[in-house]
Amino acid sequence: VQLQASGGGLVQAGGSLRLSCTVSGTFFGVYHMAWYRQAPGKQRDLVASIGTNARIDYAAAVKGRFSISRDDTRNTVYLQMNSLKPEDTGVYYCYAVVSARDYWGQGTQVTVSS
Q1: Percent of residues, the chain, with pLDDT higher than 70
Q2: H helices then E strands: how many in the chain?
């Protein structure tokens, strides 16, 4: 099982980016999916999560600006990021529970310039 993330880049403050993460390999099912981010010198923190029951949670810092969604036909989770701020800069990691095991993607860099 592999998680492949994409969509990061450099954007000016106020701009938007859309991250994608696709689960590939042989597995029974993809359950909980989420995005985390790690700023330089800081711990990895939850940004948003989405369950199979469509329950969604957001970190307070991104609520109202970011939107998480999933396409189970493609085993893909998305993170739409709007009104980006410099403090959103970091490496974004996707996470998924696949066949009852935890998996992480390789991370994609998001840099927001002021």
Answers
A1: 100
A2: 0, 11
